[in-house]
Amino acid sequence: MANTKSAIKRIRVAERNRLRNKAYKSAVKTLTKRYHEALETLGSNPSEENTKLVDERMSAAYSKIDKAVKRGVLHRNAGARRKSQIAKARKNDEQAVSA
Q1: pLDDT tens-digit readout, 70-88
Q2: pLDDT averaged over every residue in the chain
Q3: SS3 letters for 39-72?
Q4: Rounded to an integer, what is the distance from CA 29 to the centroid of its chain?
Q5: CB count in 10 Å sphere of residue 67
Q6: What gap in Å lies between CA 46 and CA 94, rounded to an integer?
Q7: Of the candidates 17, 10, 9, which has an alpha carbon nearest to the alpha carbon of residue 68?
Q8: What domains can you pick out in the chain, each with its CATH number?
Q9: C-alpha to C-alpha distances, 26 to 47, 62, 63, nearest whole angstrom
């Protein structure tokens, strides 16, 4: 166990940051998963309503990724990679539907 006041504070700060980081990473994963589910629904049943749902979920995932990058939870390049994979999935799905 830590003996000094500063070491005790560092333990508290580290735990607080760990929980915040965990929450952001979990939210990014959840929103990405929901986006992919909406894409599958759009692929099996293309409609205006499903397209709107995909757009909303894509926007929510992008927003959470950007916030995680801003707060230092994700590295800039990791955030860009995740957003790129989301956009690539959308593009591939649209090509599959149109073909």
Answers
A1: 999 999 999 999 999 999 9
A2: 94
A3: HHHHHHCCCHHHHHHHHHHHHHHHHHHHHHHHCC
A4: 5
A5: 15
A6: 10
A7: 17
A8: 5-98 (1.20.58.110)
A9: 30, 14, 14
